[in-house]
Amino acid sequence: MARPVGRMARRVLGGLVTLVAAGAAASFSASFALESRDPALALKLDGTNPEALIGRAEAALANPGSSLDNDDLLEAARASIAVLPLNAAAFRLFASSAATSEGIERFESQVEMSDRLSRRDLATQLFLIEAAVERRDIRAALRHYDTAMRIRESSRGLLLPVLSSAIKSPEIRTELVPYFRDRAPWLGEFIRHAINNSPEPRNVVRLLDEAGGIPEGKFLDTLHAQLLSRLVNEGEFATAADYFRSIRPEAREILGSIAMTADSTDAKYTPATWQVFTIASIESMFLAAPDGGFELTSEVEPGFSGSIARRLAALPAGEYRISAPIRATDMAPGATVTFQLRCASDVVLDKSIEIRDGIPFTADFTIPAGCTTQLLTISAGIGFEPRKPVLTIGSPTLSRR
Fold this sequence. Notes:
Layout: H1 3-26, H2 39-45, H3 50-62, H4 70-83, H5 88-96, H6 101-117, H7 122-134, H8 138-151, H9 156-166, H10 170-181, H11 187-197, H12 201-211, H13 218-221, H14 223-233, H15 237-247, H16 251-255, E1 275-276, E2 282-288, E3 294-300, E4 305-313, E5 318-324, E6 326-329, E7 336-342, E8 347-354, E9 361-367, E10 374-381, E11 390-394, E12 397-400
Antiparallel strand pairs: 1-4, 2-3, 3-11, 4-10, 5-9, 5-12, 6-11, 7-8, 7-10
Helix pairs in contact: 1-7, 1-9, 2-3, 3-4, 4-5, 6-7, 7-8, 9-11, 10-12, 11-14, 14-15
Signal peptide: 1-33
Keywords: Signal
């Protein structure tokens, strides 16, 4: 395992295990409120306080005049672990003492024996995760992750954030592949968490590519749109388009047009396909159009101002004219519709027109070289006049100029 990965995993997992240990210990005695500030006083209130045992030993270790020896340190660690098996501080004391590596390995082997006797103990699994990370054994750490998340679903809230952050490591992504193949029971929850919370969503795409994609399933199928939305929201248009091409054979044709068709309005892959915005003041849907295609119809409350729909496109560089038929009923004067087309960094089209029944939207724009992927957003601004406006936008067409 590469050193940066080991340091990152040790730092994050260490913080996690310490947090769990503190939470568990706090329920034993009121003395735990004093364990970090005054471990000696905490031990007077509760002589078995595991954190205070370690705190007192470490304080003595830092005192040059202390007579504490190696045996005393190891005894403090053993006494602490006897009360609280999940105890990163005690393991740290073992590692930082003059104990031989054989002694530490012997202690770890006792925990592993407990694991072999019963895999139902979450504390044992979390300790073994910590120990595996210390020796940079990714495969063993993930094996204990798997066991912990199987035996206690509540542990997923603690472990999945760490795992989602760790997928930036190629080594960890490689070792996760078998859990995709075996459809681990926590897999769907992990993918969803990684999509929504991983610091870099492109690493989720890398993981899915290496693992052969998201496994099929009713719940898992909904994750495609979540990942595409995360990528688009963060301006990763090209990555979103590449991911869409990897999961849909007809993606190239869909992305090469902005028309509203059966394929381009498939909600399973929004916003690579047309995505309608669902909020309280607007209700939109795609309906069959008289010409055999599709059109977007929106019932809008007075005062609405915002986005109606959006979609990704991959139009070649060049000069274009866009046209979209518009129908409107009970629309107040001054209501507008806006079409915006933007690359990852530049807006190439941003035009508003007043909504008038039967008057189409038209505009000219230029896609520069280097803008390989674009996002088209349709917005509207409706006056506050008390009416029941309905806006229908037909399938947009493009022509070269």
